[in-house]
Amino acid sequence: MNESTKIKGDEKATSVLKAAWIIAVVTIISKLIGFIRDIVIANYYGATLVSDAYYYAYQIPSLSLILLGGVGGPFHSATVAVFSKLIPNLKEKPEKEVNKLYSTFMTATTIFFLILSVIMFVFPRQIMGLIISNGSADMINLAAEHLKIMTPLLIIGGIVGIYYGILIIYRQFMLPNLSPIIMSAAIIGVVMAVPDDSKGYALAWATTIGAVLQLVIQYPNVRRLGFKWKPDFHFTNNPNFKEITELLFPAVLSSTVGQIHIYVDMFFTSSISEGAWTAIGYANRVFQFPVGILVTAFLVPLFPIFSRLVAEKDLEGIKSYFNKGVGVLFFAAIPIIIGILTVGTDAVRLVFERGAFDENATFMVTEALWFLSVSILPYVFRDSITRVYYSFNDSKTPFVVAFSSIVLKYLLNVIFIKYMGMGIGGITLSTSLVTLFNACVLGALIYKKVRMNYKSLFTNLLKMCIAGFVTIAVCFGVAVCFNKFIELPKILFEITKITAVGIVCLTIYTGLNLALKMEYAKELSSRLINKIKHNT
User: Fold this and answer.
1) N or C: the chain end with fewer CB closer than 10 Å?
2) Which pTM value belongs to this model?
3) Contacts of 468 (CB under 8 A, 6+ apart)
4) DSSP states along 155-172
5) Domain range list for the chain
6) Residue 226 burial by Cβ neighbours in a 10 Å radius (0-12, 13-18, 19+)
7) What's the pLDDT tens digit per position in 128-160?
């Protein structure tokens, strides 16, 4: 590797880290505002017929807006994977052919979701009747009206997904990750502003307004970059559009496989105990707060780089950036696991335990969270390697692997719940093992495209794990000492304990990794020291 190539590589790595910090901060703010949104909804609606009807109806449009069209969703991923290779210079306006492909993709997406929207608008009662077949007539009718109000979300979801992809290609990371904040803010504002006697459909209207605002705020920047949508029906004999559809269709199916996993879990959870499904839901929220921030922050800026490296046939570059990206994610993930295992109960108690949420509920959520925590490492590996597949325009392999895991999920649930009687922990343990299965299979099959250099990645992971085992032993000791010797008011005790264990964890874990000469710790430390010197 010559000096100029090394400098370019360092500049790319620095830009990825900068983007990751920006995305992480915005994602944290987004999740906090989302938490406030949930509190506002609970305050005004509680657990009532209206809130149930809204959440049932929202399942369908949210599939388009969040699962398919969100950051990391199929429409965003397909846009990045294909258009990254067609836009070599980000400082120039897109060429005519690129704009034509953009128009074709936008036209096809709008037509497809418009047809679905019309079906939803014309047959809302029949659709909701299938989803909540055991619900009352009032529930079904109310949910049907909510669905009619929210049908525009289906069209908006696909379009916003394409906008996200275009903006991220041009390294405009702020707006795509800011969008969920707009949705939450719209819901908070509308729900609080509407008089109490008019709140029946306020949630549905607020959600629709929030989705429209997501679209409106993205459009000017996409237009400014030079992308102009003119209806284009060149769907056949179009190699680039064919490439998009071949990537998009299996990716959409892969995204819906997750829903099947949820239905399998719901089937088994219903036989465990009252509140079990709610506990698993809360555990997933706690799990996704740090893990979602990590994965979003690093993979959003890395994905366009993967796609460009594939276009340039730079396989060594793919290996290098994959190892660095996943290595940093592993490095940050292990302290999260330690935190969950040592002070997870305290965190759940601090955030949720009030009112009807009692000690038993805290234990159920923590139990689910303990078994879920072990999936963090395979989770970040799986999501990272999936982006490499997408960069090679291969979404079929991730789909086949995800689909095959449905049977494994069912069998593991049978073993853990029916035969071993593990309860909630069995549900989340099976989730963790399925995640590990997906990660291992995808990691092995990628060798057909590129021979990844896993040796250095897992050598560094071994050092991290050694540091992690020592750290968790010390953190458990600190936690036990707090329980025995520290007496403070409940909330202050939990905050102090979590803070103290967190400081001890990060100090020992980072120090041990540096002592073991773990590559990514040394690199991050070096960059931080240089940054401090530069600022002073």
Assistant:
1) C
2) 0.72
3) 334, 335, 337, 338, 509
4) HHHHHHHHHHHHHHHTT-
5) 21-235
6) middle
7) 887 666 667 887 888 889 899 999 888 888 888
